[in-house]
Write a structure and sequence with these properties.
This protein is α/β, with parallel strands linked by helices and 447 residues long. The chain is built from 23 helices and 7 strands. Strands 2-3-4-1-5 form a 5-stranded parallel sheet, with helices on both faces. It has a two-stranded antiparallel ribbon with strand order 6-7.
């Protein structure tokens, strides 16, 4: 979509797309770190600490990092901003986790092979080939060690025939694509490949590193960079966090042996209500909090001045607020308060208000109706027995490692904030009669 600045509510309906990834240097991008101090919005500063050591030092180890935050807090944009100026030292390649993994069945070997595929795809796009010895080792790994001889031609087809005839393919990316497609499918070969890949995790990592080392060497020779960074985008969107726990968090020690940088985008539930392994016990983590709309002791409808400024500028890059909203300042304050500082909800609310408008301006009635409409959609995610727990979290501003809390985090019904880490319910929930009844019960003195 062309990143124009909307001049009418009809245009605003399109420019306020809550799911569109905005990259740094694009017209709609807004650097939020300029509005909040590092204590409350430390993301870019912390990422720089990991990837940009002082000039007197060099990055002597590979960084394996978890970027933890709710869906819709801008993690993908932030990691792109942090990595855009790492070249020529670090080359970044992004893995779209929802596309490459079977979301109902994910294993450790899948993760390792997808890392190999991401690097292979990068080199293939740039027509970089491995030297013949390393090339043959990689082919042997794919066609003999991961796949039995009688399955090889069934899976790889003509690629195997050409390899046997000594024909050097442009690169091994075609083999990897075939293999990972088989793993993602529910074919009869998937279990067999996984069993062979997982039978010796040390051997799996060793072969992956042989490929990564050879690819890195050729990357250096081509003058394109010193090492690879693989970012697992959208990994926090896999609903079954037990799969991520088993394939990534519980296998962290093995993943840290891979000789490339890796960033996993993780959900707050992985850190604050983990299945078995807490994210910070598996990797270094950088937390992506919601915007500092308010502080811990403030009411749910309070909005800090710097947050109003940040929200105004975020929206104004996409919509000329002064020409589209009848009362832009009040609308911004309401959107900021009701979003809870979650950027995606901010866009959803503003887009809904533009959709409601029937005249040349978005009126106060349109804004109020948008809030009611989005609230009615959001509360359907709350399970009946969870209202009591939501009231407790609102009272204590803390969560615990239990099933309900993991669910509430995963569905962004409870949001986390930085500073001294604290949590609260999503502001849209406050007006629901079930929450108010639960809160009234919590607030009454116990006999």
């Amino acid at each position: 979509m062309q990143q124009i600045r909307a001049q009418t509510p009809a245009e605003g309906f399109y420019t306020l797309d809550p799911f569109l990834l905005v990259n740094p240097n694009e017209p709609w991008y807004c650097d939020l770190s300029q509005y909040f101090d590092a204590q409350h919005y430390p993301v870019l500063r912390r990422l720089d600490k990991f990837f940009k050591p002082p000039a007197s030092m060099r990055l002597s180890r590979f960084v394996h990092l978890g970027l933890v935050g709710h869906k819709g807090t801008g993690k993908s944009t932030l990691i792109r901003q942090a990595t855009q100026d790492l070249q020529p030292d670090i080359v970044t390649t992004f893995v779209q986790s929802l596309s490459v993994f079977d979301q109902s069945d994910l294993t450790f070997s899948d993760v390792v092979l997808v890392i190999v595929k991401a690097i292979a795809d990068y080199l293939e796009e740039r027509k970089i080939q491995l030297p013949q010895p390393q090339y043959q080792l990689v082919l042997k790994w794919f066609t003999e060690e991961l796949v039995t001889t009688n399955r090889s031609k069934e899976i790889f087809g003509d690629l195997t025939t050409q390899a046997e005839a000594g024909v050097k393919l442009p690169f091994v990316a075609a083999f990897i694509a075939k293999l990972t497609a088989t793993i993602r499918s529910k074919s009869e070969y998937r279990t067999e490949i996984r069993e062979r890949a997982e039978r010796d995790s040390v051997e799996l990592i060793r072969n992956a590193n042989l490929f990564i080392d050879a690819a890195t060497q050729e990357l250096n020779a081509a003058g394109l960079g010193q090492t690879f960074l693989v970012v697992f985008d959208d990994l926090e969107k896999i609903t079954n966090r037990a799969l991520v726990d088993a394939a990534v968090l519980r296998r962290a020690e093995e993943l840290r042996r891979l000789r490339c940088h890796i960033v996993f985008l993780l959900d707050p539930a992985d850190q604050y209500a983990p299945v078995t392994v807490q994210a910070s016990q598996a990797f270094d983590i950088v937390n992506v909090p919601n915007l500092r709309i308010r502080d811990r002791t403030d009411t749910l409808d309070f909005v800090r001045p710097e947050a109003i400024k940040a929200v105004f500028d975020v929206l104004d890059k996409r919509v000329d607020l002064e020409h589209v909203f009848a009362d832009p300042q009040k609308a911004v304050e309401q959107f900021a308060a009701m979003s809870g500082g979650r950027l995606r909800d901010l866009m959803i609310l503003a887009k809904q208000a533009c959709e409601n408008a029937t005249g040349n301006l978005v009126t106060q009635h349109d804004v109020d109706f948008a809030i009611r409409s989005v609230r009615s959609q959001r509360i359907t995610a709350v399970q009946p027995e969870q209202w009591k727990r939501l009231a407790e979290i609102h009272r204590d501003k803390q969560i615990s490692n239990q099933k309900d809390d993991a669910y509430l985090l995963l569905h962004s019904l409870v949001l986390n904030y930085n500073g001294e880490q604290w949590f609260d319910i999503h502001p849209l929930l406050e007006a629901d009669p079930r929450f108010r009844q639960a809160w009234k019960t919590q607030s009454q003195p116990q006999p």
